[in-house]
Amino acid sequence: MGLLSLGTPLPWAEAQPLASFVRDEGIEQLINIYSRCKDKQGDVLLWGDELEYMVVSLDKSAKTARLSLRQAEILEQLAQKEAQGSLGPVTYHPEYGRFMLEATPAAPFTGAPTDLLNVQPNMQLRRSIARKNLLPNEVPLTVTSYPRLGVVNSPFTEPFYPPNGPAARSDFLPDEVINPHARFPTLTANIRTRRGSKVSIDVPIFVDSQTPRPFVDHGPENYIHMDAMGFGMGCCCLQLTFQATNITEARTLYDQLAPLAPLMLALTAASPAYRGYLSDQDTRWNVISGAVDDRTPWERGLVPPPEGFTTDNSDVVIPKSRYDSVDSYLAQDPVLLADEAHYNDTKLVVNKRALKRLDDAGFDPLLAQHFAHLFIRDPIVIFRELLHQDNSTSADHFENIQSTNWQTLRFKPPPPGSDIGWRVEFRPMEVQATDFENAAFTVFIVLLTRVILSYKLNFYMPISKVDENMRVAHHRDAVLNETFWFRKNVQRDSPKEYTKLSLDALVNGSDEFPGFIPLIRRFLAATSVDLDTLCELSKYLSLVSKRASGALPTNASWIRQFVTSHEDYKQDSAISESVNYALMSELDRLTQADTPPGGT
Questions:
Q1: Using 50, 70 and 90 to split pLDDT, how confident is the model at 43?
Q2: Per-residue pLDDT tens for 472-491?
Q3: Looking at the Swiss-Prot or TrEMBL record, what is one Pfam family this protein matches (predicted)?
Q4: Number of domains, the chain
């Protein structure tokens, strides 16, 4: 979540008239950063991960599992110990949900293969320290979506609060589940106010033998309905950030990781349940996308804009939420430049005012349109005390827009006054139940970035096919049953040919595709990695390989199987209190044993 600004956040009625000012100032801040850092060279590979936890209160006597809302107390304890130097190489941060914790390494990892062996121990240490600072009945679980968050007529938090409140006005969630820092309730309220209504999220119900038909739940028939930001921002994930050697390498990494985002979303699928029901999808992305969709009815194309409406944007209609997949490639890559319209083949709405200013400042067209596209959004939270800044030393207005464009990847300029370089954040992965799994996917992606850059691989394909893959990645058991578009030949000068492949073929290789893991093994064999390190890394690659082949179930598949096979389950798609308690207890057992659900 990063640092939280202190000050007085403005309600939407006061913030909206200042939106153009903040955007203009943010663009000036970006131009200043670019002017200082565009020629920055020689940064070493550094990277880190972010893990998010839910704090769950288990009552063994009552057989209940509730989300603990003690985030502030827990973080205060941890901050005191960090100030005393007793935490070690880890650090903790607040998150949107008052039941959530975020933990990261205190310092980034390096590019050395041996440093990859420090990932799992660091994750284990983070969880161990968190656990020691919880109450005896509380456990830190890496669960992507809490199955009973927002269930009707039954407590799901400790303490319990009835639903509704001035920020979200939800029929299912109380405002007390929101982090009390002023930014978060204001963000929630301003998204709702700008949109003109509560957010609306509908995911298909999993139909079992006793599921009511039609299934009716406050929204469209046969869909689970959610109406608050907390349903999306209350999900947990695993994110990685990479520092590149320079801006060119960062742009290349951004582009080549974009087609991988849907694949990694499907591979890490871990969220089959919402509001006390099993859904017919396995991943969270569209839930979060809907949870922060602040587009007005005319921006969603539902009604004409109001009379006299004007905009700096190139179109009134904005096709996606501000939390969605990336919309364009941005590298100055000969492959992309040779046929940019073929690859950036979807409609890209840009802020024309921002685009002209970036063009005038010497940004190349691809980089200018990338940022001009981000700046079609309004700043949602403006702090009164931070309105007027020194644009030569501050990036707060830029980050106000940048950090609330929650896409599958984020291209991150160096912060002013720091030694940090150009970075890329990889955001699609769902958090896994165990540290071993989270370490495995982390190691896999880190090694794959090294392979991409070392072998100059070419994953370019039309953005429209990446978008299609994102939709497919949500499907139930997509790992086993779906195929995904990908480039047939990943060499630099290969023809523009694409085919649909299973995740097994993409990860493990086939007659049609070399496979990501075989490419990684080839890369490792060509480096001076000692045998012991190779053996340890192989354990992580083996888990990813088995997940792709179906030999090991996804967390989503395992959760669904656990629920449907429990003796208290009624074949009606509903996850009862007793089933949820059994699920959380089993996840805690697997967490402590660091054994992936479904085997090793």
A1: confident
A2: 999 999 999 999 999 999 99
A3: GCS
A4: 1
- 569 in Cβ contact with 545 (< 8 Å): no
Contacts of 163 (CB under 8 A, 6+ apart): 150, 170, 171, 172, 173, 174
Q: Are 264 and 257 in contact (CB under 8 A)?
A: no
Quote the tokens at residue 151: 């269930």
The verdict on residue 64 lying in a domain is: no
Note the pLDDT of residue 4: 56
Q: What letters, b where the CB count within 10 A reaches 16 and e where it falls short, cover 451-463? A: bbbeeebbbbbbb
447 located within any domain: yes
Find the DSSP H helices in 57-182: 71-83, 119-132
Residues 6 or more apart in contact with residue 109 via CB below 8 angstroms: 46, 47, 48, 115, 116, 118, 119, 446
Q: What percent of the chain has pLDDT over 90?
A: 96
**Structure-block tokens of residue 587:** 């996840």
Residue reference for tokens 């006793």 = 210
- Whether 223 is in a domain gets the answer yes
- Cis peptide bond N-terminal to 94, omega within 30: no
Q: In this structure, what CATH number is given to the domain that contains residue 482?
A: 3.30.590.50
Q: What is the pLDDT of residues 551-576, one digit of tens each?
A: 999 999 999 999 999 999 999 999 99
Q: Is residue 45 part of a domain?
A: no
The SS3 of residue 506 is helix
Is the full-model pTM beyond 0.70?
A: yes
279 pLDDT higher than 80: yes
User: 194: domain range?
Assistant: 1-38+140-600
Neighbours of 380 (CB within 10 A): 24
Residue 319 and residue 407: Cα distance in Å, rounded? Answer: 14
The counts of H helices and E strands in the chain are 22, 18
How far is Cα 286 from Cα 191, in angstroms, rounded to an integer?
A: 17
Q: Are 459 and 259 in contact (CB under 8 A)?
A: yes
Of 181, 190, 179, which is closest to residue 10 (Cα–Cα)? 190
Tell whether the model's pLDDT for residue 1 goes beyond 90.
no
Given a cut of 60, is residue 325 above it in pLDDT? yes
